[in-house]
């Protein structure tokens, strides 16, 4: 299975063009998520990821995942792939990269 790394520019373009057939998952802890995250991202902390994703999302859904750093995102993506998700991309640079390209955020 190939590792898919997504560029923040690509995700931003998809959202701007109204292609919402995707889910963005923030795997950082809930407190960190509450202080700022990509607009529309759902919070599923890494420890709960496999069980919560399986009950909440279709395994064919396109998923973008990000965490504290790229290694965190890579671990989350591998967790999802092992759980049977087939279209998982790691958002390179996470929230910092997203903010750098002017992506919308929400939080405190």
Describe the structure.
This is Rhodanese-like protein. Residues 18-107 form the Rhodanese domain. It holds the Pfam family Rhodanese. This protein has five helices and seven strands, in the order βαβαββαβαβαβ. By secondary structure, it is α/β, with parallel strands linked by helices. It has one domain: Oxidized Rhodanese, domain 1 (3-Layer(aba) Sandwich), CATH 3.40.250.10. The chain has a five-stranded parallel β-sheet with strand order 1-6-5-2-4. Helix 4 (70-82) links the parallel strand 5 and strand 6 (88-91). The longest helix is centred in the C-terminal third of the chain and has 13 residues, at 70-82. The chain is globular, with a radius of gyration of 13 Å. The model has no long low-confidence stretch (mean pLDDT 90).
Strand arrangement within the widest β-sheet reads 1-6-5-2-4
**Ends apart, CA distance between termini:** 38 Å
CATH homology-level superfamily: Rhodanese-like domain
Main beta-sheet annotation: 5 strands, parallel
Q: Helical amount among residues, as a percent range?
A: 25-40%
Derived from helix and strand composition plus strand pairing, the structural class reads: alpha/beta
Number of domains: 1
In the CATH hierarchy, what is the class? Answer: Alpha Beta
Mean pLDDT: 90
Order of helices and strands: EHEHEEHEHEHE
Shape: globular
Amount of beta strand: 15-25%
């Amino acid at each position: 299975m190939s590792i898919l790394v997504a560029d923040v520019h690509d995700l931003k373009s998809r959202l701007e063009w109204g292609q919402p057939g995707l889910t963005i998952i923030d795997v950082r802890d809930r407190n960190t998520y509450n202080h700022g995250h990509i607009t529309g991202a759902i919070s599923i902390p890494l420890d709960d990821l496999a069980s919560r994703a399986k009950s909440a999302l279709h395994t064919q859904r396109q998923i973008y995942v990000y965490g504290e750093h790229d290694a965190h995102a890579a671990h989350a993506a591998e967790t999802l792939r092992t759980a049977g998700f087939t279209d998982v991309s790691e958002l390179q640079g996470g929230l910092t990269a997203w903010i750098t390209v002017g992506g919308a955020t929400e939080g405190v």
